[in-house]
Amino acid sequence: MKDMRIPILKLHEYLLISVQVDLDDQTAMQFQEDLLSKIHESGATGVVLDLTSVDIIDSFIAKVLGDVVSMADLMGAKVVFTGIQPAVSMTLIDLGIHLQDVPTALDLEQGLIKLRRELEEK
Amino acid sequence: MKDMRIPILKLHEYLLISVQVDLDDQTAMQFQEDLLSKIHESGATGVVLDLTSVDIIDSFIAKVLGDVVSMADLMGAKVVFTGIQPAVSMTLIDLGIHLQDVPTALDLEQGLIKLRRELEEK
């Protein structure tokens, strides 16, 4: 089976990720590891994680995504989620996963604007 | 087997793609189709295609990449390649595929700058 990795793009001091596959457990764990390494090696201060193409998530994936935000935060990088679909937002709330401190935005452009604003406020 | 698709990010009027898997024939063809659809639906005027993580390409993939540039051009979108590795550049030249009219740049940031310049010149 082919190695499934989610590409992480670096643009200026930010990392951009667009998740365009349904995440299975292994892909999600691999992504978590890849993202943290990339933050470390690039010294990125912000991450925009676009979930526009993700239709459903389960509790494991939701936890991985929640964790990666806290982990990135510890490493000094702010994560913004964009394009969270209605079904995904319902799953997150149903599961009791409140991404309360995580800024969200409609799309990649808005996410970058929000990230810039968040980082300026610091 | 899992459906392998290369994510295409839209940022302002541009599309950004970072190829972070070794391209097999099917993935490359799927990518060609996805990119053209995305240009059509988004009305993007430019595409940055980052090949930093591609170590080797064969003649089929090289042809697909060359074709996608011409196809995108017909649809009104300019393609810039970034991060072409030494081995890949050698393969392209050895195969007689001269991407002469295709602008190239070192990385994503430089690619976006080049794209902006190319589009302004038109």
From TrEMBL, chains A, B:
Residues 4-115 form the STAS domain. It holds the Pfam family STAS. SUPFAM superfamilies: SpoIIaa-like. PROSITE patterns: STAS. InterPro entries: Bact_StressResp_Reg, STAS_dom, STAS_dom_sf. This is STAS domain-containing protein. The lineage of its organism: Bacteria, Bacillati, Bacillota, Bacilli, Bacillales.
